[in-house]
Structure formats: structure tokens, C-alpha cells
Amino acid sequence: MQMKSRRPSETDLSLDAHWDYVNRIEGECVLKLLSDQLYWFCELGSCLSSELVDRVHAPYTWTVRQAVEHCVDAERIFGDRMLRIAAGDTTNLPAWDENAYANARFGLGNIGHLISELGFLRQANLVLLGRLIPSAWDNVGRVDSHPITTRGIAWLAAAHVQHHFEIIEQRCEIAPQRAPM
């Protein structure tokens, strides 16, 4: 019997862009990955000065603060999608315009508050995933007419944060510890 939070198979993700993200992360259990990233959130946040978070680092067009805001927004959207797909909701869920959200700049607050919000959202998503029956992980929904499972969304959430946090580390020339020793 395969574990419910196992790596995705070809039926869990349908877009090459999603596979590109997911194939860059290691591990066999998405619950462990999602949980372990909570440590990274805190460590990364503690390395970011106000000088670093509000500067645009070429070739990027978002500030680090906007990139973290984007991760917060995405985590909230991933959570909604996981809930709806796990519940068997067959509504074709809409895509979202990440640039419109970033340009809205409604979350411009203390970077520590944004990191905390990301952590709270991640914890809520972990609680949701932890209470799902095994078959709910295999439920297939549609996002922008593309099929994806609850499992696929969970793996995409982990991969998405990793993608953006690695860019932030590179941009700011920081190397926070990613997991407890």
C-alpha cells in the first residue's frame, strides 16, 4: 500500500510547469516537506533586513517583500484548492493573476508578520491534509481546466515555496539553515 502523501504520479499533475517545480524537490512524504519548511520560513525571515526586502534585485521585478507576499497569497490559494478538491468539488477552479496580487501591495507590513502569516497558513494546510482520508488525496479537480489531485496541489505548495525562497536566498546572498540540526 502506498502512503497517501507519497510523491505524485502522472495522474496527480498535468502541467509541465508544475512537474518542473515538483521534480526539483527531494523527499517522499509531502507532509514532512511541508512541515520541515516551517523551520526554513523562520530562519529566512530572521536573515532579511529592511534594506534587503524593499529593493528590487535585477533581473527580477518584485521586491523580496512582494515575493514573500506572493508566497503567502499562493499558500492561501493552495489551501482553498486542496480543501475543495479533497471534498470532491468538481468546479473548474479559476487561475489567479499573481502579478495583480503582487501589484495590489495590500500586505505591505512588517516582513516578520508576513513570514508569520505564511507559517500560520502552512500550519492550517498541514492540519487539513492530516485529517484527510486516504482516498481524498486521489480526488481529481480542475484548475483553469487542467486536472490536478489534492496530492498534486500539496506537492506544488511545497515546491512553490522552495522555488521562491531559493531565489530570495540567491538575490540577498544569504544562506539560512533550512532544517533543524
Please give the share of residues in helix: 55-70%
Structural class: mainly alpha
Strand content: 5-15%
Tell me, rounded to a whole number, the average pLDDT.
Answer: 92
CATH class: Mainly Alpha
CATH architecture: Up-down Bundle
Q: Work out the number of β strands.
A: 3
Order of H and E elements:
HHHHEHHEEH
Subunit organisation of the chains: single chain
The termini sit apart by 31 Å
Query: Judging from the principal axes of the Cα atoms, what is the shape?
Result: globular
Give the biggest sheet.
3 strands, mixed
Here the CATH topology equals Four Helix Bundle (Hemerythrin (Met), subunit A)
Gyration radius (Cα, Å) is: 16 Å
Number of H/I helices: 7
Domain DinB-like: 46-168
Organism: Aporhodopirellula rubra
Protein name: DinB-like domain-containing protein
InterPro entries: DinB-like, DinB/YfiT-like
Describe the structure in your own words:
With 181 residues, the chain is mainly alpha-helical. It has a single domain, classed as dinb family like domain (Four Helix Bundle (Hemerythrin (Met), subunit A)), CATH 1.20.120.450. It contains 7 helices and 3 strands; from the N terminus they run ααααβααββα. It has a 3-stranded mixed beta sheet. Helix 2 (30-47) packs parallel to helix 7 (150-172) and helix 4 runs antiparallel to helix 7. The longest helix is centred in the middle third of the chain and has 23 residues, at 64-86. The relative contact order is 0.24. The model has no long low-confidence stretch (mean pLDDT 92). It comes from Aporhodopirellula rubra. Pfam families: DinB_2. This is DinB-like domain-containing protein. Residues 46-168 form the DinB-like domain.
